[in-house]
Amino acid sequence: MIDCHGRREIMKRFVVCCLLSICSMLFFECSKPDEPETKERQWTIMGYFDGNNNLDVSQAGTSYIIADVQEMEKVGSNDEVTSVVMVSSLKTGGNSNYYLVEKHTDELPDKISSTKLKDLGTKDMSDPQVLKDFITWAKTNYPAKRYALVINDHGGGWRGVCEDEQNGGGALMSMPALRSALEGSPHFDVIVFHACLMSMVEVAYELQDLADYMVACEFTMPMLSILGSDLWLAELVNNPTMPALDLATKVAQSVYDRGNESQKITHMAVTDLSKIRALGARISELGNRLITETRGNWAEVGHAWGQTHFTDQDDPAFVDLREFVKKLQQEENLKEINLIKNAANEVITAVNAAVPFTKTNAPGLSRGGLTIHFPYPNNKEQFDSTNYVKLKFKETNWYNFLSVFIKSASQAMANTSVSGTVQWPGHNLSQFCVAVLDSSHTDYINSFAYVNVDRATGQFEFKLNLTANIDVIVEAFDDLNNNGTILEAGEGFGWWDRDADGKWNDMFVLKPGDQIVNANITMKQATVSSLAKRRADHRR
Question: How far apart are CA 278 and CA 2, in angstroms?
């Protein structure tokens, strides 16, 4: 006998369960609009701040690197713009930490008040894997629509960036190594180098497919922070949808403004990395045309090189690309060679297209925004061919042009010479001792040419091809710590005291064909004097 009543009960319960399930689903579906939505932030700013070197010890005994963090803390982070930094400091024994940058004001020196998110112990900040790990961590924990990376450390142009004297060997992270750290990371909208000498064609070429814009300086930068992050970060927080080019320009302008305010000589440029491949192609064409078409006019290439401004803020093996090419166009014979003239015009056009912003407060100078490796023809030591050919920039064949230039121009530029010796009583000369032909009539050093001094004999010799008279002083400097800063306390300096009056007023007219010998220099030790204060500065 079939139990119909039991079946009806089972069916009744089944229907009730189904109705309850449907109601439950409807309830939760209807509840979703009332839940808070997760909003994607507009920007994540990543700061890689290496204080495991002399950037952590200012003249006042406090940390420049921590001061840079405090500058960011004046603004802090919000839901749309988040700043995170990795800071390694001698003040903490070389330990590295991740911080979320929060708003704090009126801080005491060497104090980071923001939340420490992770203590990493000791890390070698020149290790590309350390940088890669930081970027991965920041992207994972603070994803955003756009990313900026600020590298805050020593820089050496194409030679590299980030020097760790505490946990590493003191060598820079090479550009290929930096590239390896950034590959596979999020594509950066902006990369900022708060480091010396990084606004180079070779650096931009290495990073061209890893970011949209590069912000960097042609000069050596003051160790005193001129990052200006309290200026540009405040504008970004107030306008988080700011386009990447606008942010890059505001960073460059802020650095310039802060440098002016601090009475420091500086330069800053924005490079559009999407235009770098085209610039590389134009440079390649110019280099090839100079090799094939210059013929007997290599002295004019050397003269154009010598006429391109060099200051004590520059690396002597780097020249401003745009200014050099303009000088090249003024040479008597080269300007009449159509293939060279056309190639030069195209380089200038390409530089201007690739650099939407460039600005310097160096007296009497305008900068194209990008330097290029171009060592003095009589100084082969400047041409580190072994490492230079490891750069992606090798694709342009500029390396081959440099090889020909160094050989050909050094032979052609030999109608004028200045030679002598350098001695430093009570001291041995270091391998970083140089002789300089200074053509500046101001407190700033404008090196027309420089050569290394033989540390064993003290001898030096300039071989030049002059086509016109030039005012020069023959000087010598021993940069003992090889940090690019001359006249630091304890280092050697001197000049050819032609009239033996003990005064630095021995500028003379060097004429084409002069063969000057016995330009002998006796150096003395620099102290914190009015001279040192006027002509020297700590550099990044």
Answer: 89
Dist CA 391 CA 58 (whole Å): 34
pTM of the model: 0.77
In a domain, 274, yes or no: no
Are 450 and 479 contacting, i.e. CB atoms less than 8 angstroms apart? no
434, 467, 468: which is closest to 449 by C-alpha?
A: 434
Domain boundary among 264, 288, 313: 264
Task: Report the sign of the C-alpha dihedral through residues 90, 93, 97, 99, in that order.
Answer: negative
Residue 118 phi/psi, 5-degree rounding, is: -160, 130
Q: Does 227 lie in the same domain as 135? A: yes
Which two tokens mark 111?
A: 């104090």
Q: Are residues 372 and 467 in the same domain?
A: no
Within a domain: 61: yes
Same-domain pairing of 357 and 423: no
Radius of gyration of the chain (CA): 29
Q: Would you call 314 helix, strand, or coil by DSSP? A: coil
Q: What is the largest CA-CA distance in the chain?
A: 135
pLDDT along the chain (540 residues), means of 10: 41 41 39 46 97 77 90 97 95 89 92 95 96 98 98 95 89 96 95 97 98 96 86 98 98 94 92 99 98 91 84 83 96 96 98 98 88 76 79 95 83 79 96 89 72 95 77 92 76 93 87 91 77 42
